[in-house]
Design a protein that fits this description.
single chain, alpha/beta, Rossmann fold, five-stranded parallel beta sheet
Length: about 220
């Protein structure tokens, strides 16, 4: 299956993408992983992307599209893939369609993870990260540490990242509404969009998505 996963920041795309890709036996292709891999390997696209990032500029769509196309050419993606974070605007969606058309392929579905905006803000603004080990993540409501402000795992100080502050989250949502949300209408016109309510336990959301794809038990 060839699937695009969309949804606002805080909708749980990365978590759901990992579970869905495993259940469907297809690679999870995320924009973040693409950038990290290309930059660490020093590929021409990675070098170009890093030059823009080091200058504090946005990486052009052409670079992101090139990375995505290279990744979709790899052998493990021959029978399908799950795209997470790409496409993120109309230009990238049109480029993806053009790529698939050249290859004689089509998308099977666009899964839209739906979460109320206030819930998105609560999820992200409530995160607290350990200063000693950033893989230790807590939440002021959903995953409280035993002692306030202290990491259960290593005793490090818990703090709120700048990116997780409410005002920053709301700005990120504005960008999502203006840049990424239009691709949902674009794909609705192709009858590809399946809306998945993304509230509830992770396993429940995964089950809803699998059912929507006709792969549920």
């Amino acid at each position: 299956m060839r699937i695009v996963l969309v949804g606002p920041p805080g909708a749980g795309k990365g978590t759901q993408a990992a579970y869905l890709a495993k259940n469907l036996a297809i690679p999870h292709i995320s924009t973040g992983d693409l950038f990290r891999a290309n930059i660490s390997q020093g590929t021409p696209l990675g070098v170009e992307a890093k030059s823009y990032m080091d200058a504090g500029n946005l990486v052009p769509d052409s670079v992101t599209i090139g990375m995505a196309e290279d990744r979709m050419e790899q052998a493990d993606a021959a029978d399908g893939f799950l795209l997470d974070g790409f496409p993120r605007n109309l230009g990238q969606a049109e480029a993806l369609d053009a790529y698939l058309e050249r290859k004689g392929l089509t998308l099977d579905a666009v899964l839209d993870l739906e979460v109320p905006e206030d819930e998105v803000v609560k999820r992200i603004a409530g995160r607290r990260i350990c200063r000693k080990d950033s893989s230790h993540v807590f939440h002021v409501e959903y995953n409280k540490p035993a002692a306030e402000g202290v990491c259960d795992a290593c005793g490090g100080e818990l703090y709120q990242r700048e990116d997780d502050r409410e005002e920053t989250v709301r700005k990120r949502l504005e960008v999502y509404h203006s840049e990424t949300e239009p691709i949902i209408d674009y794909y609705k016109a192709q009858d590809l969009v399946v809306t998945i309510p993304a509230l509830g336990k992770v396993a429940e959301v995964t089950q809803r998505a699998m059912h929507a794809l006709g792969r549920g038990e």
